[in-house]
Amino acid sequence: MTETSSNSVQTTLASGRLSDRPDARREQAAVRRRQASTLVLMYGVLISIATVLLGTFLFALLASVKEDPLEQPFRFWFAQINPVNWAGAWEQGREGSGNAWWGGFSPGGEVTFHLTYAAPVGEELAAPAIEIPRRRPGTGMAAAVYTDFAVDYASDLDIRREDGPLYEFTNKDGVTEQWQQATWHVRFRYEGEGPRIERVPFSSQAPRSQTLIDATLPPTRMERRGRVASWENVTPGVLGYVFNNYRRVFKESVDLNTGDSLFMSWFQNSLLISLGRVALTLVLATTGGYALARLKFPGQRAVFFTMLVSMMIPIQVTFISNYLVIREINLLNTPWAVIIVLVVSAQVLIMKQFFESVPREIEEAALMDGAGYWTTFYKVILPMSKPALITITIMAFQGAWNDFFWPLVLINSPPSAFALPVGLLSLRNAYGGAGDWSLILAGAFMSTVPVLILFMVFQRYIVDNPIASGSKE
Amino acid sequence: MTIKTTFMTAAIALAATPTLANDVVRISGWGGDNIVVVNSLINEVLDDDLKAAGITVEYEPVEGDFAQILTNALSAGTAPDAFYVDSFWAYPIFESGKIDPVPADNQDVADALLPALNQAFTYEGQLMGIAKDFNTLAVQYDMDIFDDAGVDYPDMDDDWHDFRTKLQQVQAELDDVYGICVVPDYARFAAFALATGWQPINDQGHTVLDDRFREAFEFYVTLPDENAGVLATDLGQGWTGGCFGNGDTAVAMEGAWMIGFLRDQAPNKYYSTVGIPKHPETGDRGNLVFTVAWGVAADSDVKDSAHKVVELLTSEKAQQWVLESGLALPSREALADNDFFNGDSTAAITSRVVFEGASDGQVEPFQFGEYGGEWKAIVDEALSAALLKERSIDEAIAHAQEQFDRLTGR
């Protein structure tokens, strides 16, 4: 506090309540303003950081459910997140297969799809040409997997017209015109027996003078400069509509020899690799850290120094020698190759520091009670090390789960043996290098789930400083 | 007949029966439409032939960076028995000795292929792979866009100026459409550069960026400035086909792979295909041949069976089916007269134009020998620098020439 303000406070106290004085009130107001502005600044910074960090996450999530994740400009409001369309998808799925969640087209299904076209008064409002095309879903493997087409089972196609009222339409030049509208109710059935078809593609072609203004579900895309409205699936079911890309990840990426989902294989491989690495890391970090912290043995400093140096060597320097060793012991193309290629110096260091902060008296008490080194370590020290162990577990799991380099180098055949990050890369298809980004994004998003769960469950342990926790007396 | 005689007769009959290999052959290639092609060939078209040969084929398509994965697998000794070899990166694979040359038994298959394709897979006088199909560049154009703009469709007689004028007219007439997406990629630019008569690597083994190269370079990189095109990246795309599929451009300059791409991404597109525009003075078209062969791993334990599988996969029966499915262009010369090419479907027209592109004008294989991707990267960098205005045309070419001088010698 400055001398002036100190005097002021003393004077104020002598003369009565602080807020009674006009200059004191001004000063209080100024303090409040400063506090408020500091608060605004602080929250502004925090919100900015959160926006940057979570914004990309939100973008990825939204893009992963879009039909065209590369659309420009990026829209935050689109068909898949519109509840009106959920209701339409629910109804269409129910009509097509009796399954309002995942939709489809099954024997007995009867689907009605509504299309409303409009045109200026005076123009002819012609019936659109409706087609259920023989369109195979997706690309690549999907084309080999899906062999049943809705067009082969849809029959009794019936189109009924219903005229609507005139309405006023303001064009882009600001001119208001009278427009006429008509709705076409398109109905088709699945008669007889047959397989459940997952999708019913649909297209409607109308003269350019007509505009599609409404439909049971918005078209997947408008083609031929507005002449053709095209739907990938008019019986999607609500989950099939919103999470179509996610379903595709499972269904369109399969091992052609076994028919198993490649994505599930990659997921299991990554899980095995991550759990294996976590287990190995915990064993090495705890035993190594404890030995360096508590045991006295010749060359201890050299071991510690070597460990520090090993942290500074990039993996690219040692990868050829590691690769050759793994090839010689016949572990290539197995998850074990990726599990054993790990450097745990940092984790050993963390555990060493942690164990050094544990009072020796605790171990001495255990030794006095007759416990050996191993019993002391296993039954006394390790239970106390929970925060540090959980931190290391999370770090190791996240590192292994997201590891790209080693799985790429060590596992290259067959595709079902890939780890998840490498598998996701392989979801790119081969049209001049263009990727199926819907599939990649949905797959990538699903790959974040295990790490997210791990963080959510154990986040409070990460906030805790393990060393600080362990050093409490 | 005594029992002894019966046994002897049976034994002689068994010995005379050709033995089946009973081998499992792993084959691999990249994804996309190839998966349907190979999967159908193995399980439908060639099923009986494979059974007769006693061979079980395990197909492992890779939907990623195939060259990288194959290189790793070859290094590890875990490569499939037979696999795709792209002419672009074939040289280092051949040089490594990891490919088993085509045996004399398969020579008749090789002799039936287009000679230019065999040339792409010949290393030190030995044929290292049997070309399975090929592609060239052509111009795909959106008929709705040209109709709406009131501009004549591109045609086989167009030269560079006609082509650019039509694109400019489309761009002027329609607010939401560009002429063509321009990409800094030699694999597209070469269609113009080669038409001038310029040679990528001359008889002395050097690359010289002469006036002919400059003429094509200037034409190509100024397409956006001349209101005839746009940079693909400005539309969030990386290739001309992506822009075309979205309806953002009037034309694309791609190969027959566009058929499959558009069938999936823009199934109702009303388009057709013509040849690459001609150079106004030479009257020639330029083009690249992209080709892929089946190679057999030198380390394979079932080399003979793998060669047999390759022979079947490139047989006339297999290629006839592939062609008539509209999935790929055959590498066999005899199939040039196939009726499929005379059809009027978009796939047939595109296939015909692309097939004819291999022998129309100045055509080079898409490969750069020992220099590989390093050679291409120099031209790509120059195109990128000029398109992004980081360097003037002359500066970009001069810089590229300096790099070529270091790479290929003066």
TrEMBL record, chain A:
Q: Which residues form the ABC transmembrane type-1 domain?
A: 267-458
For this entry, the protein name equals ABC transporter permease
Q: Does the keyword DNA-binding apply?
A: no
Give the residue ranges for region: Disordered.
Answer: 1-27
Q: Where is the composition biased (Polar residues)?
A: 1-14
The taxonomic lineage of its organism, from the top, reads:
Bacteria, Pseudomonadati, Pseudomonadota, Gammaproteobacteria, Oceanospirillales
Which segments show compositional bias classed as Basic and acidic residues?
18-27
Q: Which ranges form a coiled coil?
A: none
* Organism, scientific name: Saccharospirillum salsuginis
The Gene Ontology biological process annotation of the record reads: transmembrane transport
Alphabetical GO CC annotations of the entry are: plasma membrane
Does the keyword Transmembrane feature in the UniProt annotation?
Answer: yes
UniProtKB/TrEMBL annotation, chain B:
Leader peptide range in chain numbering: 1-21
**Has keyword Signal?**
yes
Which domain of life does the UniProt lineage start with? Bacteria
Q: Which Pfam families match?
A: SBP_bac_1 (PF01547)
- Coiled-coil spans are none
Where mainly found?
periplasm
Keyword NAD assigned: no
- List localization entries: Periplasm
Cellular component aspect of the GO annotation: periplasmic space
Q: List UniProt keywords, sorted A-Z.
A: Signal, Transport
* UniProt subunit comment: The complex is composed of two ATP-binding proteins (UgpC), two transmembrane proteins (UgpA and UgpE) and a solute-binding protein (UgpB).
Family from the record: Belongs to the bacterial solute-binding protein 1 family.
What is this protein's record name?
Answer: sn-glycerol-3-phosphate-binding periplasmic protein UgpB
Organism per entry = Saccharospirillum salsuginis
